[in-house]
Amino acid sequence: MSIALVLSKSDRFTAEGSLDAALSRAQITMRGNLDESADLTRVASYLSKLGAGLKSVALDLQGLGVITSAGLRSWITFINALKSASFEVTFSAVSEVFLERTSAFPQMLDGHGWTVVAFEAPYFCTSCKKRVVHLLNAAEFPTAPEAPEPPARACADCGKALRFDEVPEDYLGFLTRMRRRGAG
Ligand SMILES: [Zn+2]
After folding, report:
1. In angstroms, rounded to a whole number, what is the distance separating the alpha carbons of residues 82 and 65?
2. Average pLDDT estimate for 20-49
3. Å from CA of 121 to ligand 1 middle
4. Which CATH superfamily is domain 2-183 in?
5. Which residue, 19, 35, 94, 141, is most buried by CB atoms nearer than 10 A?
């Protein structure tokens, strides 16, 4: 038994999900444009009203397509609220657009011991001249190296090895930052 949640809904942005029957775990999916229409204050205040019983919050951000500076500001306020409430936050999936912004604004994913489960990563086939986005699992990355290496992916059309279409140190930097914080 879970309880359905619709926390923010506009033409451009939705935040909906579910709560478990014990009200201890919330799962929220955000889709659309993270801009001035995204009412994250409402999401944060709903979660904080659940009180100390709420332990963990899982956020699915794979559907976030655009992040404006207004959206970025409300996002930072939102995650600061989650931090103050000491929720254990898991990002079940993060979109490419979101991750691109984190290289300039690392605080977007900043919380002690927070984890990213899966995230989108862009690849490019130099033969087919085609860009493809893969969903990668953070667990695919070995814990040891300081600079994570993108895992190999093959082109679905021609079978050739795809090239990672971002600067790995920038794009994957969040993995190192998260692990360092998680360990420390
Ligand atoms: Zn190809």
Report:
1. 22
2. 93
3. 17
4. STAS domain (3.30.750.24)
5. 94
161 C-alpha to center of ligand 1: Å? 8
Name the residue type at position 165. Answer: D
Provide φ and ψ at 148, rounded to 5°. Answer: -65, 140
The domain segmentation of the chain, as residue ranges, is 2-183
- What six digits make up the tokens of 137? 């699992």
Q: How far, in Å, is the centroid of ligand 1 from the Cα of 76?
A: 38
C-alpha of residue 102 to centroid of ligand 1, in Å: 29
Distance CA 136, CA 24 (A): 28
pLDDT, tens digit, 9 for 90 and up, residues 38-63: 999 999 999 988 888 999 999 999 99
Spatial distance between the Cα atoms of 40 and 137, rounded to a whole number of angstroms: 26
Spatial distance between the Cα atoms of 61 and 136, rounded to a whole number of angstroms: 14
**From the CB of residue 4, how many other CB atoms can be counted at a distance below 10 Å?**
8
Residue 22 alpha carbon to ligand 1 centre in Å = 48
5: its two tokens: 């949640």
